[in-house]
Write a structure and sequence with these properties.
Elements lengths: L3 E4 L7 H6 L14 H5 L10 E5 L5 E10 L10 H15 L5 E9 L8 H15 L4 E6 L11 H4 L12 H8 L3 E15 H8 L7 E3 L8 E4 L4 E14 L3
Antiparallel strand pairs: 1-2, 2-3, 3-4, 5-9, 6-9, 7-8, 8-9
Amino acid sequence: MPLTISVLADRPDLVGPLWDMPTSWPEFMRHDPIGGLFYNNLETRFPEFVLVAQDEAGEVVAAAYSVPFLLGGHPLPDHGWDCVIRNGLLTSIHGDAPDAISAVEIAVRPDRQGTGLSGRMLTAMRENAARHGFAELAAPVRPNAKEDPHEPMSTYAFRVRADGLPVDPWLRVHVRAGGRIEKVAPRSMVVPGTLEEWREWTGLPFDVTGPVVVPRALAPVHCDAEHGVAVYVEPNVWVVHRTGA
């Protein structure tokens, strides 16, 4: 499929269509309080790290987001996605020079999923990181084919098929693209909410204290019925790509 991939900094006119593009993320994932620190600042602070893909008709069909941050020689953080967003914003606010870059999200319009767009956007993101002088692109990958929320990510992430590639399709895309699985980020994303909010997000009762299995969640949600709150702690998998820079 012919595809035009633009950097948002060069095409600010695509902001509206970008926000209007539907995605298939489960509702509860739209309520991570850290996420807004990136998305509410992407037009002003990070437009050079937002890639927008258009099809031959000019329709926005995919997007790729990344954020430069300051790693300072430390290992990749256990609190992956939330950490790089918070760190990246503070690095920008303080005017510090970032020394690392992380993927934030690759989104593909639901009617174009399964057409190879995610892999093409990953390549474009890696190339964009190289243009900015980063030798590596880190990615806190969400292996969304993980069906058993009770299986530890430390087990699932390293399960492979007979050909040696990961059983998870999204991890497989990264490994085929040259990425190496570095480690699990056990506290990559944290979504807290009241029980009423979780009921609204999921349609589940959330009326008994204990773990709640939520469709498309990678781990159980911890429900505290007595105190009226529930918290989801999502594990991701750090994958690192060389960019060629």
